[in-house]
Amino acid sequence: METAYISTPLGIAKLEGDTDGLSAISVLDTEETLTDVIPEVLEDAVYQLNEYFEGQRENFNLQLKPQGTPFQQGVWKELLNIPYGKTMSYLELSKKLGDVKAIRAVAAANGKNPLWIIVPCHRVIGSDGSLTGYAGGLHRKKWLLAHENPVKQGSLF
């Protein structure tokens, strides 16, 4: 397993993966030494993340290998269907997965997503539009949603 630490507008991100794919990306609340030489298996992920933060990428094209239960894997797969700049409620996500009663389990699986940004768990919000729960912190969720859907102020004159 290879590891790299990179700087992002939201803090240091830790990437982990091997030749089979990317297994984890997380944002840290601690200081880490940035990786000088990115391992070859992580180069494309670093490149695509940098493009995302520069506003040049809306979709990722990476081999993913997150570890989780079959249920978690199903939730994470469905998260990949939420388009850039759009949101979905936990209830809507539960319905898409076929069981509205599983809303708490869906929320828990969403919170265990190991692939920060790539699997867009930040796009899931409360039914009332509130920014509920986010493992990376609500300030980061708010930033990511604003980054993906900036308000365009028109001219009044």
Describe this structure in words.
This protein is of the alpha+beta class. Helices cover 32% and strands 17% of the residues. The chain contains five helices and five strands; from the N terminus they run βββααβααβα. The strands form two sheets. A three-stranded antiparallel beta sheet has the order 1-2-3, with helices on one face. A two-stranded parallel ribbon has the order 4-5. A hairpin with a 2-residue loop joins β2 and β3. α3 packs across α4. It starts with a strand and ends in a 9-residue tail after the last helix. 24% of the residues are buried.
Q: What is the CA-CA span between the terminal residues?
A: 57 Å
Tally of strands: 5
Enumerate how many helices there are, as a single number. 5
Mean pLDDT: 92
Reported for the largest beta sheet, the result is: 3 strands, antiparallel
Shape: globular
Approximately what portion of the residues adopt beta-strand conformation?
15-25%
SSE layout:
Blueprint: E1 2-8, E2 11-18, E3 21-27, H1 40-53, H2 70-79, E4 88-89, H3 90-96, H4 103-111, E5 124-125, H5 138-148
Parallel strand pairs: 4-5
Antiparallel strand pairs: 1-2, 2-3
Question: What does this entry show, briefly?
Answer:
This protein has 157 residues and is of the alpha+beta class. The protein is built from five helices and five strands; from the N terminus they run E-E-E-H-H-E-H-H-E-H.
List the defining traits of the structure above:
157 residues, alpha+beta, 3-stranded antiparallel sheet, two-stranded parallel ribbon, 5 helices, 5 strands, globular
